[in-house]
Amino acid sequence: MTISRYIGRSWLAAFAAGIVVCSCAAPEPPPKHSVSLSKEMAARLFGTTGKADSAYRERRARGYFLRGSALQMEKRHAEAILDFQMALRFDSSAVTLYALAKNHAELERYDDAIEYARLAILRDSTFLPVLEIVGTSYLALGEFEKAIQAYEKLVELEPDSRQYRFMLARIFEAYDQDKAVAIYNALLEEAGGDERVLRRLAEIYRSRNDQPRYEAVLERLWAETGEQDVNEELIAAYCNSRDFDKALNALVRATVLVDSDDAARLFGAVGQSMLDAREIAATATADQFRRYLQIASRERFFDWQTNIVAGMVAYFVDDSTIADVYFDRAAIATNQSDAAFRIGIFYLQNGKYLRSATRFERYDSIFAESRFALYAGYTYAYAGDYGRAFGALKRGLERDSTNTELWAQAGLVLEHLGRTAESDVAYEAALKLEPDNAFANNNLAYSLATRGIELQRALALARKSMEIQPNNASFLDTYGWILFNMGNYDGAVKYLEKAIKTGNAGATIYEHLGDCYRKLGMNTDAVTAYRKALELAPERVSAATRLEELTK
After folding, report:
1. Helices (H), 52-194
2. CATH no. for residue 105?
3. What are the angstrom distances between the C-alpha of 100 and each of 79, 86, 136, 178, 274?
4. Is residue 123 a contact partner of residue 9, using CB atoms and an 8 Å limit?
5. Alpha-carbon separation of residue 359 from 366, 519, 531 (angstroms)
6. In this structure, what is the dihedral angle of CA atoms 205, 211, 215, 218, given to the nearest 10 degrees?
7. Is the residue at 139 inside a domain?
8. Cα(110)–Cα(261) distance, rounded to whole angstroms?
9. Is 248 helix (H, G, I), strand (E, B) or coil?
10. pTM surpassing 0.90?
């Protein structure tokens, strides 16, 4: 590094005189020893003037300095310091003091480093590397304002030094990001694409959530380096800003840069981001989904999670054939029961009950796990096909008769089929296995109330389910409906209104509340409740009939 010879002596003299205050003392002179010198040694050490032989001192200083330098290169800094201290006894020049400052800094003895740097500046106020040691030492000590002063002086003295300006900007990042940005941009204007500078700017803009500038800097960094990590960061940035055209372009680049595992990860991330955006604001278009599938079709080694994402994308562009291809790769080719289960849940969540049920049944025959039979029963029941629902549940129970959920769901399905005696048996089997199963307690209680039998037991069962889940609207409805059937209409209204306040009330609960109001002579409130029930379920004939009776 070029050493400037025009340092302002007034600033450096002030620094040397005491602006930098350290706890360590100046190097002490060597201890005195009681020795006797021969005449020859004395003649060699001292001339006729009585002063030390300068040539001898220079040889001793150079020897210690060279040995210390060698140790420093081997990163044996503590040993190097000992030799430099010996050199200092014969030569107290700025160079020796700088060497001591540097090695103390390497050992993270920053106070000592600063003190030796101060002494060096007293010897030579034009020695810039000493001032750099001061700046880095203050930076390491967390004394940022002093570090800034040191680097600002370095930049003032060496305005063409990119390294000093870069370090000054790095310190400003913690204090004044605008100043840091200004320095970084000036460096870019001078030398174009500087990878270090671009990475720092990208980090600043990312931390500020300045998405346009963040992406612009990343694009420059990608053009400069062509590195995989930059392209991946761009993909994440584009997905975050919902710019899926650019994300897909970057995804194409990634297929050339990365191995199959990384490709699967990136395809999964982009696809999931597009799916999430569709849920939020429909910002991913059908054309973008199709392009994603076109790019994905070139890849053959996705993991099961990425195959599922691709299958979901295909589903949302109404390409069920391609969706099935990806789903089957995920579930069957990889032999992943978790993948198979997730596929069935996906169709269930999107209201495709029959497709979901057939998937669960198909995977039940492959993996033979109780959860597939259970969810096949659930989904067939959602679709209103109670016969096939019971068939799926029965197959599950034949494999595992200790599954409480299978018995409880079988009881509900049998009840819908009008097979109440068998339904009671199924509920009782569930409660025998798990007396505190909230679902089984509630559903048996509701079944008994609907038939108007064993109402006291029904009330006890319903109370237990409410204790387990006190804010479950269905459980509150069951308890209220039992009270209704016992003639306690005031009590029934209390629990039914509480069920509605949960925000999860369906048409049945509103109709039950209307029935209670009607019994209490509160016909206006009953009309309101029936209308709400019909708003939620227009096909509900019983509510429509009661409403007509009250309003004609």
Report:
1. 54-73, 77-90, 94-106, 110-123, 128-140, 144-157, 162-175, 177-191
2. 1.25.40.10
3. 11, 11, 15, 36, 59
4. no
5. 11, 46, 38
6. 20
7. yes
8. 46
9. helix
10. no
489-501 and 507-519 helices cross at what angle (nearest 10)? Answer: 150
Instruction: Supply the DSSP string of 463-500, one letter for each residue.
Output: HHHHHHSTT-HHHHHHHHHHHHHTT-HHHHHHHHHHHH
Cα distances (Å, whole numbers) of residue 9 to 13, 15, 123, 164, 285: 6, 10, 11, 20, 67
The one-digit pLDDT tens for each residue of the chain (552 residues) are 333 333 344 444 445 444 443 434 444 554 544 445 455 555 555 544 445 578 888 899 999 999 999 999 999 999 999 999 999 999 889 999 999 999 999 999 999 999 999 999 888 877 889 989 999 999 899 898 999 999 998 998 899 999 999 999 999 998 899 999 999 999 999 987 799 999 999 999 999 999 999 999 999 999 999 999 999 999 999 999 999 999 999 999 988 888 878 888 899 999 999 988 887 766 788 899 999 998 888 876 678 888 899 999 999 888 888 998 888 888 887 788 998 999 999 999 989 999 999 999 999 988 888 999 999 999 999 999 999 999 999 999 999 999 999 999 999 999 999 999 999 999 999 999 999 999 999 999 999 999 999 999 999 999 999 999 999 999 999 999 999 999 999 999 999 999 999 999 999 999 999 999 999 999 999 999 999 999 999 999 999 999 999 987
* Per-residue DSSP letter, 418: T
* Residue carrying the six token digits 């007509």: 548
**Is 10 among the domain residues?**
yes
For 464, what's the count of Cα atoms within 13 Å in the CB-facing half-sphere? Answer: 19
56: containing domain: 1-22+52-160
Q: Which of helix, strand or coil describes residue 421? A: helix
Token pair listed for 191: 């030398």
Distance, in Å, from the CA atom of 163 to the CA atom of 197, rounded to the nearest integer, reads: 11
Measure CA of the first residue to CA of the last residue in the chain; give whole Å.
Answer: 99
The CB density around residue 152, as the number of other CB atoms within 10 Å, is 16
104 within a domain of the structure (yes/no): yes
Report how many domains make up the chain.
1
Q: Which residue has the tokens 């049920």?
A: 357
Residue 90 lies in a domain: yes
